[in-house]
Structure formats: structure tokens, C-alpha cells
Specification:
By secondary structure, the chain is mainly alpha-helical. The protein is built from five helices and two strands.
Length: 175
């Protein structure tokens, strides 16, 4: 279920990022008649004041290639259950968060920024749940050790952790 929701969010962000980046880039090309675009798709040039860009070409390409591309890659890797899916999913989730942070610093607030920021947070949270780092269940008084992200249970310490090294060196001395 968690994987399916993560795939859904990644797919939606991939499609809308590629489409949005395409509209931004194509609308910036010289000679393109912008009057044919619906008013909702015509981006005000004033939004670029104070930014390093004078057209929407570069931001559109960045949105399409980096955010849309990472989300597309993460979607395909997660769909096929390829080992790098977790890394790609994390990169995709953080890419939309960084995109929205930068956007909010440069242009006036839009409700879409809140929606896509929420999508990025959802992606990172779903990935943590999928990896078992976070738990959807609150810690209880059943003797389960509660970690900072939820119940840890009877998991062994990670190989190479300080606890694992101490345990290993103690075993080595006793034999």
C-alpha cells in the first residue's frame, strides 16, 4: 500500500513537472505566440525580477529535466523494484522540496507551492515508512524500545555501529 501511494505521488509529480517545465520553456522561445496559451498558463515576467533569469527557459528546463526527470527515474526504478529505487526516490523527493524552497524565495506565494511542498514531504515520509526507518504505529508499553522515529523492536544494531563494534570486541576478548 505504501509503495503504491509513493508510486502515485511520484508519477503525478513527474507528469506535472515535465508538463510545467515544457510550458515554461516553450513559452520563453522567441517568436512563440503566447496569446494562444490560456491565461492560467501565461507566467508573468515580473516574477523573474530579482532572479538570475530573464526568461522562463532555464527554469523550465531545470523543472523538466531535474525534478521531472528524477521523479520519472524514481517511478520506474520503484515500479521495477530495482535496488537504486530508494536512492532515486529520496533524490526525487528532495528535488521538489528544494525547487519549492527556491521558488518561494523568488516569487510570490501560490497554493500550488504548498501542494507540491506537501507532495515532497509525503514522498520522503512514505520512503521512510517503506524502508522501515519510521513506523506508522505509535510506541506502546509492550517492552518495545522506542527510537526517535518510532518503535525499534528487536532489531539488531547496524553492522559497523558503535554497539556492534563493542559487542564484537567483547566476544573477541572472551574467547
Amino acid at each position: 500500500m505504501i509503495r503504491a501511494v509513493l508510486l502515485l505521488v511520484q508519477g503525478l509529480v513527474a507528469i506535472t513537472s515535465i508538463a510545467g517545465g515544457l510550458v515554461m520553456a516553450v513559452g520563453s522561445w522567441p517568436g512563440v505566440d503566447k496569446s494562444g496559451l490560456p491565461p492560467g498558463l501565461q507566467l508573468p515576467v515580473e516574477y523573474l525580477n530579482g532572479s538570475p533569469f530573464n526568461t522562463y527557459l532555464v527554469p523550465g528546463l531545470l523543472l523538466m529535466v531535474i525534478v521531472g526527470g528524477l521523479h520519472s527515474l524514481a517511478f520506474v526504478l520503484l515500479l521495477r523494484r530495482i535496488a537504486l529505487a530508494s536512492l532515486a526516490s529520496a533524490a526525487a523527493g528532495y528535488s521538489i522540496l528544494v525547487w519549492i524552497f527556491v521558488q518561494m524565495a523568488l516569487i510570490p506565494f501560490s497554493a500550488l507551492q504548498a501542494v507540491y511542498f506537501g507532495a515532497g514531504l509525503a514522498e520522503v515520509g512514505l520512503l521512510l515508512l517503506l524502508l522501515g526507518v519510521a513506523s506508522p504505529h505509535p510506541a506502546t508499553d509492550t517492552g518495545v524500545q522506542a527510537g526517535p522515529l518510532g518503535p525499534v523492536g528487536n532489531r539488531k544494531a547496524a553492522v559497523g555501529s558503535r554497539h556492534d563494534r563493542q559487542e564484537h570486541s567483547a566476544r573477541g576478548r572472551s574467547t
